[in-house]
Design goal:
The complex is a heterodimer of chains A (163) and B (360).
Chain A: H1 8-12, H2 14-39, E1 70-71, H3 86-90, E2 96-102, E3 110-118, H4 127-131, E4 137-138, E5 155-156, H5 158-162
Antiparallel strand pairs in A: 1-4, 2-3, 3-5
Chain B: H1 2-37, H2 57-68, H3 79-95, E1 105-108, E2 111-114, H4 123-144, H5 148-179, H6 184-190, E3 194-195, E4 199-200, H7 203-206, H8 208-221, H9 245-270, E5 279-280, E6 283-285, E7 291-293, H10 296-322, H11 330-359
Antiparallel strand pairs in B: 1-2, 3-4, 5-6, 6-7
Helix pairs in contact in B: 1-9, 1-10, 2-9, 3-4, 3-9, 4-5, 5-8, 5-11, 8-9, 8-11, 9-10
The chains are: A alpha+beta (163), B mainly alpha (360).
The structure holds iron/sulfur cluster (2 copies).
């Protein structure tokens, strides 16, 4: 795409300026009207702004929204994960670290002794969830406030992830 | 003697406090207005005892923050000039209001009181002189910071302000020719006349192009978007990059005070100042012969109110412009100033003088 030649009226600039002012002024008065109507209790349905007042009001997430990971559990409360390393392999950010241990049940074979995700590095691509053959890792907690005072605290361990 | 002194001091305080408060309100208005224009809500969290007042306390919170911050002077900079610059800026922006009339001459305590701080017979030249002196604040701030970015910002600022001041001068000449006075009070009084018996002889009616050019050049004078190259907060950074705490606050305040100054000048020169169409000393005289008589006090009050409403409207309009247009590139700014606005203002001047000569 090259840049388009401006037409004569556009190059005059002043007409375009007034068009722009008309547009923003239109928004101003439209929104002002809605704000006033809400304040006076006349029309509570129309909002003058698209803002969510965040800590009090939350935007509803879509069901497939990728939020903080969790490890799913079996009926007896142990992790479903069989430490197959699929997620660790597929992770583009290399932020999963798993140490496998021998599981007493020969049908399960292995279980994770350690399962760390460095959320400070994770790009929230969801590949780990896609790769898992056991449906053992999911990103459906709805937790998005992941913050810490140090990088170390951003590493979530298996105990945190199982909750 | 005592009463006249009291009256003078009273007028000074009225104007000063009025302007400073309006500037503070404008900081709030700028946030809220831009928010409403962009479908947002804007700053509304600052509260006193859970009472938010639509974010009005944000102004208070901001000023407390400004005062409490560290006041940093660059170690290699000139401490004296660095401190002086914001005061120069704010001072010259503020004293410009002295010559602007906010009401007609009223009779009080057996005296004629002109509702303006000083009725200078060269009022308009005085206002432009103070506006030009404001450049010193910008240049000093850029120079004394000993920072190349600040220095370049100061240079950009001064060349921009010089360029557009010339345009302001030439656009004003048209108005001066028509109203034949340099005193702002006389100019406003002359705008109370009617053209052909029904159109108020406001500056915008007799000088529409002059009004437009003055607005453009005036916005360039305030150094705000779309002419904010001296500052360019977000990327090219400007003359007050080395300023912090209340010294920075003073520069910000100056911007708003200049906005009010331009709004008042546009009102005074082009939109009839304190005049209300068809309002004479004793009430409304509509063209159809219909009259509403009012007492002298209420007429004066209405006029002061009309002045305030007009200034407020133009402040709103300047904010609307500021939040609508993108910034110019520097060469575009200079081209607009010297190749478009300035020649048009000269042509406008020639046409006006020709008309004045022919219609005399
Ligand atoms: S979401 Fe992506 S980056 Fe994050 S742990 Fe899973 S695979 Fe790695
Ligand atoms: S892919 Fe699933 S089962 Fe395999 S290690 Fe990762 S979480 Fe565990």
């Amino acid at each position: 795409m090259g840049s388009r030649e401006l037409s004569f009226t556009e190059r005059l600039y002043i007409i375009e300026v007034f068009k722009g002012l008309w547009l923003t002024g239109h928004h101003f008065f439209g929104n002002m009207k809605r704000h006033l109507a809400r304040q006076l209790g006349l029309n509570r349905l129309k909002k003058g702004a698209v803002t969510f007042q965040y800590p009090e009001e939350r935007r509803p997430f879509s069901p497939r929204y990728r939020s903080r990971h969790r490890l799913t559990k079996r009926d007896n409360g142990s992790p479903r994960c069989v430490a197959c390393m699929m997620c660790e392999t597929v992770c583009p950010a290399h932020c999963i670290y798993i140490v496998a241990g021998e599981h007493p049940d020969p049908n399960i074979e292995k279980f994770p002794v350690r399962f760390d995700i460095d959320l400070g590095v994770c790009v929230f691509c969801g590949f780990c969830v896609e790769a898992c053959p056991e449906d053992a890792i999911r990103m459906d907690t709805g937790i998005v406030e992941i913050a810490a005072y140090s990088r170390k605290e951003m590493i979530y361990h298996i105990e945190d992830l199982l909750q | 003697m005592m009463t006249s002194l009291t009256i003078e001091v009273g007028k000074v305080l009225l104007v000063l406090i009025g302007v400073l408060n309006l500037a503070a309100v404008l900081t709030w208005m700028e946030r809220k207005q831009s928010a409403v224009m962009q479908d947002r809500i804007g700053a509304n969290r600052a509260s006193i005892l859970g009472f938010r007042a639509f974010g009005l306390f944000q102004v208070l919170a901001d000023s407390i923050k400004m005062f409490a911050k560290e006041d940093f002077v660059p170690p290699m900079g000139n401490r004296f000039l660095h401190t002086l610059a914001p005061f120069v800026s704010a001072f010259f922006a503020l004293i410009g209001f002295a010559a602007i009339p906010f009401g007609n001459v009223i009779h009080l305590f057996g005296k004629d009181i002109s509702l303006q701080v000083i009725d200078l017979n060269v009022g308009i030249l005085y206002v432009f002189a103070t506006m030009s002196l404001g450049i010193y604040g910008v240049v000093l701030a850029g120079w004394s910071s000993n920072n190349n970015y600040a220095f370049l910002g100061g240079m950009r600022g001064s060349s921009q302000m010089f360029s557009y001041e010339i345009t302001i001068g030439t656009t004003i000449l048209g108005v001066l020719m028509i109203f034949e006075s340099l005193s702002l009070q006389t100019i406003v009084q002359a705008q109370g006349e009617l053209l052909w018996g029904f159109i108020p002889k406001w500056g915008v009616v007799v000088q529409p192009i002059g009004c437009l050019l003055f607005l453009v050049a005036g916005i360039a004078e305030t150094k705000r978007v779309p002419f904010d190259l001296p500052e360019g907060e977000s990327e090219i950074i400007g003359y007050f990059v080395e300023y912090s705490s209340m010294k920075f606050g003073l520069f910000m305040l100056t911007d708003f005070v200049e906005t009010i100054l331009i709004a008042s000048l546009v009102t005074t020169l082009f939109f009839g100042g304190w005049q209300i169409p068809y309002l004479m000393r004793d009430g409304f005289h509509f063209p159809g012969g219909f009259t509403v008589s009012l007492s002298g006090t209420s007429v004066s009050l209405l006029q002061v109110l009309s002045y305030c409403v007009k200034v407020f409207f133009f402040c709103w309009f300047l904010l609307l412009v500021r939040w609508t247009l993108p910034r110019f590139r520097y060469d575009q700014l200079m081209r607009l100033g010297w190749k478009m606005v300035f020649p048009i203002s000269i042509l406008n001047l020639l046409a006006t003088s020709l008309l004045v000569l022919l219609l005399r």
